[in-house]
Amino acid sequence: MQAMVEAGAMAENVEVSVDITPTGLAVDAIEAATLVDKECVIGQVRSGEVAVTILPVLASGRCFVGDVH
């Protein structure tokens, strides 16, 4: 979330994946996404490595399916 906001995203528009599994374990990767010019900029952190991609917006107008935190 912080990196997205520092890059210019509005905090209220940033979608962040869950960081704990339903069984209470840490997840393997955290993702954050925000809308930029009708596309989703999605960043993922896994094992200390960062990956960023641009994907189309979903029909819902959001970048993630399911819960958003």
Automatic annotation (TrEMBL):
Pfam families: DUF6993. Residues 2-67 form the DUF6993 domain. InterPro entries: DUF6993. It comes from the Bacteria. This is DUF6993 domain-containing protein. It comes from Arthrobacter psychrolactophilus. The lineage of its organism: Bacteria, Bacillati, Actinomycetota, Actinomycetes, Micrococcales.
